[in-house]
Amino acid sequence: MLFVLIGLGAAVCVAQQSGAHKNVAVYTTAEKTEYRLTRTEAGSFAPSVQPLESEICIFVNPEKTFQTFLGIGGAITDASAEVFAKLPVAKQQEMLSAYYDREKGIGYTLARTTIHSSDFASGSYTYVNEGDKELKTFSVEHDRQFRIPLIKQAIKAAGGTLTLYASPWSPPAFMKSNKTMLKGGKLLPEYFGTWAMYVTKFIKAYEAEGMPLWGISLQNEPMATQRWESCIYTAEEERDFLKLHLGPTMAKEGLADKNIVVWDHNRDLMTQRANVIYSDPEAAKYAWGMGFHWYETWAGGKPMYENVAAVNEAFPDKKLLFTEGCAESFNAEHYQYWPNAERYGASIINDFNNGTVGWTDWNILLDEKGGPNHASNFCFAPMHANTATGELIYTPSYYYIGHFSKFIRPNAKRVSTVASRSQLLSTTFANADGSMVTVVMNQSDAAVAYRLVVGSSSAAQTIPERAIQTLIY
User: Fold this and answer.
1) Own/partner pairs for 86-90, CB < 8 Å, 24+ apart?
2) Please, what is the angle between helix 305-314 and helix 270-278, to 10°?
3) Mean pLDDT for the stretch of residues 94-98
4) Angle, helix 147-157 to helix 89-100, in steps of 10 degrees
5) For residue range 353-374, what is the model confidence (pLDDT) as tens digits?
6) Which of 244, 334, 447, 448 falls between 20 and 30 A from 470, CA-CA?
7) Neighbours of 161 (CB within 10 A)
């Protein structure tokens, strides 16, 4: 395992130097090299000239800024917490630092968790006894064994602040049309109010444990009938549940300041969901924005990034949040499979460039089997643990995510950035401290020489084949 991370302090100093021509701090991760978020050769700015037609450039216009950055992070699931508990204490601390410490790790600032069980748990469970319509037995005691302790440690490792939100996979079985948490089904009308109250009880219970919640999503993947926890809402059903039950109940219970995220599913149908919910003012007033996943590619298609842009264009007053993505079909022989990392890099860049304010990976940690998962839906995580040896395995995806999360900080502003050739993808953010962060990804099998053109200055750079770079200036 190679774990090479250089602290940000030197880079910030570079960004704050005086003078007309400032240096560029460069960090690189590249296939077929030892580079893993490694400080590589720096560049320096000089007055820019008209690019030649043959030159490849990244054009950054600091005068044009867009959305405010919320954060980047991953999900703290039951599975992640169960695996974490099996690690030696030293490895637990290594994992916490690797994810949440900005100097020693990649500085996660965002986290998602589940409202009772998802498939990534050792079994299905809820917070009430089956059939308890009045929610008298409601308790999050189950989560105190593994999940709550990990969330608290993550908050501490992140410096005391972590933007945390939660998503339900299914209401309890007795509230549903198919009488099981699994295999889809719908929330029965007679339990609309009960389920809304259940969600508010969850928020209050977690906050009573010292874990403030930024908000919730209404339903994870509301159009997917899965063999694990799932529940179906049409666009109209989600709109009406939000408008008539969840929104008013949260307001009545003193939780009007909590953000509600709708959809929380793939990019493919997100425009239709936005049209239905946001076009109803009484529903739209409760919706902070829309969450989305990347699994529309399951049938062999391409990511529908243009749908993210379409929602952003049609409803610019509503926010966009990537709420889940992972590499499916776990195979331990593919821990270092580079295309998994490139999927992350391409998604993060395109989603931010299309208006997304935050980006959340799925499980932060899984075991050597890609679980635990009670439905055998085993997947990759950026980091795996061999529970027999206590070893932590860092995948390339961890480093690719880190090229964004380590350097782009909450409240940064996205800056207009365009690559002149398709080999390169790029995005830029301006941090509140004045530092500029440009991420460049090379999707080709050859090194690319390019110029970073920022306003009237430019700096010559080279990015290796199959690589990602972060440039700070």
Assistant:
1) 86/367, 86/385, 86/387, 87/385, 87/387, 87/390, 87/392, 88/390
2) 20
3) 98
4) 50
5) 999 999 999 999 999 999 999 9
6) 334
7) 11
User: CA 442, CA 299: separation in Å to the nearest integer?
Assistant: 26
Indicate whether 411 pLDDT > 70: yes
Beta carbons of 107 and 437 less than 8 angstroms apart = no
Residue 210: DSSP 8-state: T
Q: How confident is the model at residue 6 (pLDDT cuts 50, 70, 90)?
A: very low
Express the helix, strand and coil content of the chain in percent, nearest 5 each. Answer: 30, 25, 45
Element (H, E) at 391: strand 391-394
Distance (Å, whole) CA 148 – CA 170: 20
- DSSP character at residue 164: E
Q: What's residue 300's pLDDT?
A: 83
Six-digit token string for 368: 């050597």
Six-digit token pair at 62?
């600091």
With tokens 């997100």, the residue in question is 270
What domains, with CATH codes, occur in the chain?
9-68+414-472 (2.60.40.1180), 71-407 (3.20.20.80)
The residue with greater pLDDT, 15 or 426, is 426
The answer, yes or no, to whether the previous bond of 316 is cis (omega within 30 of 0) is: no
Q: pLDDT tens digit string along 279-320?
A: 999 999 999 999 999 999 987 889 999 999 999 999 999 999
Distance CA 77, CA 86 (A): 15
At residue 292, φ and ψ (nearest 5 deg) are: -150, 160
End-to-end CA distance of the chain: 30
Residue that the structure tokens 């935050």 belong to: 358
- In the block, which residue shows the tokens 């009007």? 256
pLDDT band at 60 (very low <50, low <70, confident <90, very high): very high
Question: What integer is the mean pLDDT of 427-441?
Answer: 98
| Cα 403 to Cα 163, 173, 348, 388, distances in angstroms | 19, 42, 10, 30
Contact 339, 328 (CB under 8 A): no
- List the single range of 16-20, 198-202, 203-207 with lowest mean pLDDT: 16-20
